[in-house]
Design goal:
Blueprint (H helix, E strand, L loop, with lengths): L3 E2 L8 E2 L1 H26 L4 H6 L10 H15 L7 H9 L9 H15 L10 H12 L3 H19 L23 H4 L20
Antiparallel strand pairs: 1-2
Helix pairs in contact: 3-4, 3-5, 3-6, 4-7, 5-6
Length: 208
């Protein structure tokens, strides 16, 4: 039986009801957590379980720490990508896309694989070729991990090439100048567009 001393009473009365209830909850929660930790340790390579348990270093919950790895990832899969870490990683945190809930885990997974493959070095400090091998390692992993890495690559491409946060910026990597503002009509259209249309079957286009 568990006892809890009630120091507010003059006769050192011990009350057991509250103590039992508090201890039972704490013990049950402790056992649950121990079971989850044991499962995580036994299945360290199981991506879904690691994601569900948030089994990654707490440091990656810090936006700046995660951005460092995520920006390095963008520079790896899109050579020549320019911008600050915050700019390059912005799409990964954007709640408009489902990847946002996995951003911290993904950043941690990049560094976990980098440390395993390259003598405990963080992903963002590797040379470009080594970073590419880390990404390949993720793409060669289990099905869920492949989907996460593939989705991250696709999102990086969309954010970089489509300029989703700045319509006027364009993308020099694909010779896309961005918005047409400032261009003369003859520079981005034809003077006689009807010449490129097929001949009408009827004079007014009405089959009836």
């Amino acid at each position: 039986m568990y006892w809890c001393r009630d120091m507010s009473t003059p006769n050192d009365i011990y009350r057991t009801e509250d103590a039992l209830r508090i201890e039972a909850i704490t013990r049950r929660e402790a056992l649950r957590r121990m079971g989850l930790l044991a499962a995580a340790a036994a299945t360290a390579g199981c991506t879904p379980l690691r994601m569900a348990l948030h089994a990654y270093p707490e440091a990656f919950d810090d936006r700046e720490r995660a951005d460092s790895a995520l920006a390095a990832f963008v520079r790896t899969v899109i050579p020549g990508a320019e911008g600050t870490d915050e700019e390059l990683s912005r799409a990964f945190h954007d709640r408009a896309y489902p990847f946002a809930s996995h951003a911290a885990f993904f950043a941690s997974d990049l560094c976990r694989r980098a440390r395993r493959l390259y003598s405990n070095r963080a992903f963002e400090y590797l040379e470009e070729g080594a970073r590419a091998m880390v990404v390949r390692d993720g793409l060669d992993a289990d099905g869920i991990t492949r989907r996460i890495y593939g989705g991250a690559i696709f999102l990086a491409q969309v954010a970089t090439f489509a300029g989703i946060y700045d319509d006027d910026a364009g993308c020099a990597l694909i010779d896309f100048p961005g918005s047409n503002a400032g261009y003369l009509p003859e520079e981005y259209s034809y003077a006689n567009p009807e010449a490129f249309l097929p001949a009408a079957i009827t004079p007014d286009g009405n089959y009836a």
